[in-house]
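User: Sequence in, structure out. Go.
Assistant: Echoing your sequence, followed by the structure tokens.
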Amino acid sequence: MSSYFDDPMVLRQIIMDHYEYPRNHELKKQEGYAEVHMASESCIDDLFIEAKIKDGIIEDTGFEGTACTIATSSTSIMSELIKGKTTKEALEIINNYLAMVDEREYDEDMLEELIAFKTVSKQANRIKCATIGIKGFVQLIEESEKNHE
């Protein structure tokens, strides 16, 4: 898997595809959906993240708002990856992603297209962009688990 994802042009294409055509880029605002607002103090990123979590399964995800290329595409890819997963599986993917961004050990295969952000740690000012939407999903998962304890 890694050789394909070692090509900087491939990584750029993945990021641009998810920026220009973001997946799950709408809020349902229906019963059963929880929503969290994530805004950056230092840049344009201002997102509403939504998830429908039932019986420990992330049934649906969505997001809307204004955000840079990195924030939009990372949120889009993550929204696809965690949909249909258990909250435990989703947190494992998210924790792997955050480990990669923090330059800690991670499982590359688990991240699929999120591997496109493997160099974001080299630009400290982009780390917040690459994690703002993801941290929104974490909040929604944690709230869901807290409500079902």
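User: And one key feature?
Assistant: The chain has five helices and three strands.
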